[in-house]
Structures are given as C-alpha cells and as structure tokens.
C-alpha cells in the first residue's frame, strides 16, 4: 500500500500545488504508524512464541526427569517406559504434514493457540492416573508400618505368615486380579504424551514462518535466535522442577506422611511425579492465551512489500488478470508436484547428503538413548537420589549443551569456516566427545553387597543362580518369600532383601525407626556364632563412590560441551551441500528420518538392553513381574555406555566418509577460499552470501532433541 500511496503522491504533485504537502504528510504519518504497529505486533508475537517454546521444552525435559518415577509407580520395565517416551514423536509425525501444508493457509496464531491447549490437555492426562489408581503401596514388613503388634520377621510356619505374603500367594489363583484399577494406567501416560506431541506440532513450523514473514529481514535471524535461546532455558527449569517434585512423596496431601516408612533414598520411593505435569499443563494453557488475540496477518515491513509472497501482492492484480493469475498458480503447483520424484532422486543421489543423514541418524540414536536413561544410570550406578540426579542434570549438563551450541556457531562465524572446515569441526567434535565418553568406563562403582544377589551369605562373590542363592542355612528355618523386596541394612554393611531372609527373630520400634535383632544371617560374615542387628533400608554406597561420581560429573559436562560444539557446523555442512531449491525438502526429509529412525526406536531398545542387567525384579500385588529393584552395576555400565559408544563410533565412520567425499570433490583452491570466494565443492553461490543464508536457516530449522541433548 505504501508503494501505491507514493505513486499517487507523485501524480498529484504534477497537477496541483497545495495538496502535495498534506498528502505527503498523511502518507508519511500513515507509514510511520504502520511501521510502529508492525514492530509492536511482531514483538508481541515474539514474546508469546518464546513463552510457548519455554513451556514445551519444560514439559519435555520434565518427562525425561520422571522416567524412573513412572517406572516404579506403574511397576513397568524400562522397555515399556521407552515406548511411552517415544510416543511423543509418534504424535508429532501423525499431523506434521497436514499442519505444515494447511496451517500456512489458515490463522496461524490461533492454530498455535489450539496446539497449546492440546499440549496442555495431554500433559494433564499424563497426571490423571494418580487420582484414579489409589494410593501407592510399597513392600514393607508389617512391623515397620507403625504397628503396636510385634511380629517376628522370621516366621516358622504358614500360620504366622504376614498378610502381604499371603495376598501374593493367593494372587495367582485370582483370575481377575490383573484387571484391578491401576494395572494398566500407564496407557493414559502414553496417550497423554502422544497428545502432547500432536499439540506441539504447529508451534515450530508456523511460529517461525510467521516471524520470517512479518519481521524486518535483518531482524528475523535475531528474533529466531532469541526464541531458540529461551527454548534452551526450558529444560533447565524442567529438570529443576523434577528435582523438587522427586523429594515430595507421591501421595502428598492424601496420606499422613508420618506413616510413610521409606525415604527418598529408597529404591521403592516414588516422588510426586504428577505434580510437575499439572504445573507444566497450567504453563502451557497460559502460553496459548495470547495467540487467540493476535491477528492473522501483520503489516509487512517496507523491505518486503515488493516480494512476490506478500499478502498485499494480490491487491495490485487487476480484476482482468485475476483468473490468469489463478490458472498460472495452478500450473505452478502441478509443475511442482511433477518435480517431486526427480527432486527426491536428486536428493538421494547426493552422496554427501546421504552419508551425513546416516551419520546423524546413528548419532541421534546414541544421544537420545543416552539422554533418556541418564537419570536412571546415575541413580543405579552411583547410588544417587532422583532429586539430586535431576538437579545435577538441570543445573550443570543443560547449560554445558547450550554453551557448546553457541560456541560452535561462534567458531563458524569468527573464522568463516568453509564446508570442509565445517565437516572437520563436526567430525572432531564427535571424535573427541566419544573419546571422553570412553573414559567413563573406568568411573563406575562396584555392586553393593546384597546377600544372595551380589554376594553370598558367606561373603564370597555370587556366581550361582540368584533365586536359589537367596536361601541359606541361616534362614532355612524361616518361611520367607523370594519375591519380597523390603531391604534392611545389617551392621556388617551388607544389604538383605528382607528381614525374613536375614533371619531376624525380633524387632523394636516402628516405621523408619524400626530395628531388627537376633538376625542369624547378619552375623555369619564376621562371627557366625553371634547374631546381629539391622535397620530399615538398604546400605548406602561408600565414600569412594561419591568421589567417583564427582569425576563422572566433570567428564560428563566436558563431553556434553564437546559433542554440542559440532551441532551447528554439521547443519551448515548439510545446508551448503544441497541445491538452494532443495533445501526445504532436504531438511524436511532429514527431520522426518531423525524422528522415525532415532526418536522413536532409541528409547525402546535402550530400555530392552538395560532390562537385561536387572538382578532383582519387583513383584506386582496380583502377581507378575514389576519394575526392577536392583541392577548389576558393572553390566549396566557396559550396556549403557557400550551401546552409546558403539553407535557413536559407527556415526564417526560415516562422518569420515563425508569428509572423504568432500575432499575428493573439492579442488585445492577451495580449501583456502577467501571470505568472498566462490564455492566449488557444493554449490556455485558466493560463500559469503551462502554463509549468511545458512546461518539464518540453521536458526529456523528445528533441531531434534536439541533441548535435551546431554
């Protein structure tokens, strides 16, 4: 409209004298008002979108922090938790194509607002099972549950068997027991996460394109960078929220906390995992409110009004030419559809793109699996609580990732690295990152001494069948169940699965202060003739393990930073080696491949592998295998780190192949290009111009799992 007003002003200036100043004044006044409204509108949208990015990153990282809590609450294995975690990507993939195509033609802000409501509904749905499946029941001997009746842990006959043991023996007979409330409530968590993925879908493609359409061209990259920066802050608060909720008992507000006989250091402890989802859901609702009041279109800045994509462009098309314009657009669409298969063939015929795509898929398999089960690994390997684990990840690892991403972009910009340099930097980052990861094999703690599992009742290392080794001469006179998990710590520093299996004959006190006496198995390691005492709860790992954990944190932070440095150069490599008209298509294929081949399967098979290291499975009240209570520390370390390292090594080989292809295609002069030189290896545009465009595209493009890449 400004162009039209200027032309009208020039026309009247040739025929009249007095109206010139008034019309020009009105034109300048309206232009200034339009410019101010454009800036104000885009800044409001920028603030709202930043808040949405914060909300979705917070809820996503909070889910990662509650993996172990969900596993214990619903008594499910790690492999099933991996399916729940991957359901977010499935939900995202269900409608990503529809949203990306039809969303741009509709009211984008309101679609984002609707997505926020769907995302919040999914988050609320995840928390709902807490209110329908009853109170959390953990395994405890009756004498520890604030009872005035003194019951001997070592029962001599079935008539003295505690009620909980009788219930478990009769559960297998009850055919309908498995259908009790709460046995399959984890399905609601899966559906909620699926719904959360659906709601998150329109935020990134529609929000970023809206900014790119209506922001001043030189400010668009800055605005998008601000949004991505806020998105990195979200996981910090997500893990810190997970740390806070993990300290609170799962049924806080519903039960008397004085009656709870376990502490947050116990492997059966479940924190208030549901509380964080309610908070995240409220934040998502609040984040979506502003979008319902934003306009479908904003006034375009002066620099973009001559663009063919301008919404006002149609106003300059005369009525006589509208039909011709529509028919021309239809012909263009048909031509674009006809070019789809050749474009796909062209894309997959690019060896650099294919090799980099393979390297990225395998590397993201490694990183996503590592990130998903990192809290579990820290808890089981170093004996840390869920609260401390989430606090450490949120306050130390996430900032290291953010700083690494920033450093990679800064290095690329400062040294104006070409495509070969980007490939080398990406390869070097992965190589040294996984090399540091290799050192973590030496930073593990030994298994805790658990009688009948990791050590025998005589103090030797366990080599026989675990289930048979739970029974010994010292507890042969007791009618104990091998399915119970009610650990006690003997004064000899050995953990016993239950007071019954420890051969304890009497107890004193109640709740957390219960002390067991005359435990025949506790005294066998040092003085077999002397019976000893034990207290409620497993024995803690020694001070040596705490020191090793400190070294692990240092190496983990450095590793996170090193791997993150190569992220931005890798994307620049991807963008520079694709023909300009294929960039959007190539990035879409790239994102789709990462989600389908890494985001969904990685948590599942990592969980299956981790389940193989379990030494003691819990038992559901109605029979059947529950969540794992104790892992083999050494086996867990080799499986978790080994699988991550193997995948990372394979991705490095593909990265080396990328570098080899680039070197083969490049001339010696290309390696020493000046700032304004021509690129020969992967294109014909000016290196400087393409660098700027690539910088802008890298910020626009969604980086899968960027917010939680540790």
From TrEMBL:
<comment type="similarity">
    <text>Belongs to the organo anion transporter (TC 2.A.60) family.</text>
</comment>
<keyword id="KW-0445">Lipid transport</keyword>
<keyword id="KW-0325">Glycoprotein</keyword>
<dbReference type="InterPro" id="IPR004156">
    <property type="entry name" value="OATP"/>
</dbReference>
<feature type="transmembrane region" description="Helical">
    <location>
        <begin position="423"/>
        <end position="443"/>
    </location>
</feature>
<dbReference type="GO" id="GO:0016323">
    <property type="term" value="C:basolateral plasma membrane"/>
</dbReference>
<dbReference type="Pfam" id="PF07648">
    <property type="entry name" value="Kazal_2"/>
</dbReference>
<feature type="transmembrane region" description="Helical">
    <location>
        <begin position="270"/>
        <end position="294"/>
    </location>
</feature>
<keyword id="KW-0406">Ion transport</keyword>
<keyword id="KW-1133">Transmembrane helix</keyword>
<dbReference type="GO" id="GO:0043252">
    <property type="term" value="P:sodium-independent organic anion transport"/>
</dbReference>
<feature type="transmembrane region" description="Helical">
    <location>
        <begin position="80"/>
        <end position="104"/>
    </location>
</feature>
<dbReference type="InterPro" id="IPR002350">
    <property type="entry name" value="Kazal_dom"/>
</dbReference>
<keyword id="KW-1015">Disulfide bond</keyword>
<feature type="domain" description="Kazal-like">
    <location>
        <begin position="468"/>
        <end position="523"/>
    </location>
</feature>
<dbReference type="Pfam" id="PF03137">
    <property type="entry name" value="OATP"/>
</dbReference>
<dbReference type="GO" id="GO:0006811">
    <property type="term" value="P:monoatomic ion transport"/>
</dbReference>
<protein>
    <recommendedName>
        <fullName>Solute carrier organic anion transporter family member</fullName>
    </recommendedName>
</protein>
<feature type="transmembrane region" description="Helical">
    <location>
        <begin position="548"/>
        <end position="575"/>
    </location>
</feature>
<keyword id="KW-1003">Cell membrane</keyword>
<feature type="transmembrane region" description="Helical">
    <location>
        <begin position="40"/>
        <end position="59"/>
    </location>
</feature>
<dbReference type="InterPro" id="IPR036058">
    <property type="entry name" value="Kazal_dom_sf"/>
</dbReference>
<keyword id="KW-0813">Transport</keyword>
<keyword id="KW-0812">Transmembrane</keyword>
<dbReference type="GO" id="GO:0015347">
    <property type="term" value="F:sodium-independent organic anion transmembrane transporter activity"/>
</dbReference>
<feature type="region of interest" description="Disordered">
    <location>
        <begin position="300"/>
        <end position="324"/>
    </location>
</feature>
<feature type="transmembrane region" description="Helical">
    <location>
        <begin position="110"/>
        <end position="132"/>
    </location>
</feature>
<feature type="transmembrane region" description="Helical">
    <location>
        <begin position="639"/>
        <end position="662"/>
    </location>
</feature>
<feature type="transmembrane region" description="Helical">
    <location>
        <begin position="587"/>
        <end position="610"/>
    </location>
</feature>
<feature type="transmembrane region" description="Helical">
    <location>
        <begin position="391"/>
        <end position="411"/>
    </location>
</feature>
<dbReference type="InterPro" id="IPR020846">
    <property type="entry name" value="MFS_dom"/>
</dbReference>
<feature type="transmembrane region" description="Helical">
    <location>
        <begin position="353"/>
        <end position="371"/>
    </location>
</feature>
<feature type="domain" description="Major facilitator superfamily (MFS) profile">
    <location>
        <begin position="45"/>
        <end position="666"/>
    </location>
</feature>
<dbReference type="InterPro" id="IPR036259">
    <property type="entry name" value="MFS_trans_sf"/>
</dbReference>
<dbReference type="GO" id="GO:0015125">
    <property type="term" value="F:bile acid transmembrane transporter activity"/>
</dbReference>
<feature type="compositionally biased region" description="Basic and acidic residues">
    <location>
        <begin position="300"/>
        <end position="323"/>
    </location>
</feature>
<keyword id="KW-0472">Membrane</keyword>
<feature type="transmembrane region" description="Helical">
    <location>
        <begin position="220"/>
        <end position="250"/>
    </location>
</feature>
């Amino acid at each position: 409209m400004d162009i039209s007003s200027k032309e009208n002003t020039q026309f009247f200036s040739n025929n009249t004298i007095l109206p010139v100043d008034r019309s020009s004044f009105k034109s300048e006044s309206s232009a200034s008002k339009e410019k101010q409204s454009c800036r104000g509108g885009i800044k409001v949208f920028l603030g709202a979108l930043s808040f949405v990015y914060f909300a979705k990153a917070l809820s996503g990282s909070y889910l990662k922090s509650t993996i172990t809590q969900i596993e214990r609450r619903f008594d499910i294995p790690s492999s099933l938790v991996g399916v729940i975690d991957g359901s977010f990507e499935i939900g995202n993939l269900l409608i990503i194509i529809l949203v990306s195509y039809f969303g741009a033609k509709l009211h984008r802000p309101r679609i984002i607002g609707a997505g926020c409501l769907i995302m919040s509904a999914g988050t609320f749905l995840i928390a709902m099972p807490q209110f329908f499946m009853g109170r959390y029941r953990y395994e405890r001997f009756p004498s520890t549950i604030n009872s005035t009746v003194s019951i001997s842990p070592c029962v001599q006959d079935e008539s003295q068997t505690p009620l909980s043991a009788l219930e478990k023996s009769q559960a297998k007979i009850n055919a309908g027991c498995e259908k009790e409330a709460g046995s399959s409530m984890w399905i609601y968590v899966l559906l909620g996460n699926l719904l959360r993925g659906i709601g998150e879908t329109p935020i990134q493609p529609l929000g970023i394109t809206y900014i790119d359409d209506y922001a001043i061209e030189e400010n668009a990259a800055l605005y998008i960078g601000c949004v991505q920066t806020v998105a990195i802050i979200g996981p910090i608060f997500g893990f810190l929220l997970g740390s806070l909720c993990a300290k609170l008992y799962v049924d806080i507000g519903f039960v008397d906390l004085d009656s709870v006989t376990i502490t947050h250091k116990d492997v059966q402890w479940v924190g208030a995992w549901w509380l964080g989802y309610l908070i995240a859901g409220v934040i998502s609702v609040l984040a979506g409110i502003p979008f319902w009041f934003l306009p479908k279109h904003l006034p375009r800045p002066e620099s973009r009004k001559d663009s063919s994509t301008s919404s006002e462009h149609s106003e300059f098309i005369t009525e006589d030419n509208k039909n011709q314009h529509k028919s021309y657009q239809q012909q263009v669409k048909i031509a674009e559809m006809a070019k789809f298969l050749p474009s796909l063939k062209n894309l997959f015929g690019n060896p650099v793109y294919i090799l980099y795509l393979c390297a990225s898929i395998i590397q993201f398999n490694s990183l996503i699996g590592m990130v998903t089960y990192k809290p579990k690994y820290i808890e089981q390997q170093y004996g840390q609580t869920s609260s401390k684990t989430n606090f450490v990840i949120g306050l130390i690892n996430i900032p290291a990732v953010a700083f690494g991403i920033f450093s990679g972009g800064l290095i690329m910009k400062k040294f104006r690295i070409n495509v070969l340099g980007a490939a080398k930097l990406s390869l070097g980052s992965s190589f040294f990152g996984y090399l540091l990861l290799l050192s973590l094999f030496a930073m593990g703690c030994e298994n805790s001494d658990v009688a009948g599992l990791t050590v025998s009742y005589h103090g030797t290392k366990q080599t026989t069948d675990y289930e048979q080794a739970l029974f010994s001469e010292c507890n042969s006179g007791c009618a104990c169940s091998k399915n119970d998990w009610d650990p006690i710590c003997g004064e000899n520093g050995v953990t016993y699965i239950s007071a019954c299996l420890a051969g304890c004959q009497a107890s004193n006190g109640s709740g957390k202060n219960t002390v067991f006496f005359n435990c025949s198995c506790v005294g066998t390691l040092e003085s077999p003739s002397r019976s000893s005492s034990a207290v409620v709860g497993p024995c803690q790992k020694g001070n040596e393990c705490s020191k090793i954990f400190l070294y692990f944190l240092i190496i983990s932070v450095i590793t996170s930073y090193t791997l993150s440095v190569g992220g931005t150069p890798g994307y620049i490599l991807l963008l520079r080696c694709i023909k300009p008209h294929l960039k959007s298509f190539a990035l879409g294929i790239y994102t789709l491949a990462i989600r389908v081949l890494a985001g969904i399967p990685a948590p599942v098979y990592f969980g299956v592998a981790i389940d193989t290291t379990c030494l003691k499975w819990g038992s559901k009240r109605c029979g059947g295998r529950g969540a794992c209570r104790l892992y083999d520390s050494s086996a867990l370390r080799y499986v978790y780190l080994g699988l991550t390292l193997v995948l990372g090594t394979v991705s490095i080989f593909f990265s080396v192949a990328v570098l080899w292809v680039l070197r083969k295609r490049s001339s010696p002069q290309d390696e020493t290009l000046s700032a304004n030189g021509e690129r020969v290896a992967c294109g014909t545009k000016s290196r400087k111009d393409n660098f700027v465009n690539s910088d802008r595209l890298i910020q626009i493009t969604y980086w899968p799992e960027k917010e939680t890449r540790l």
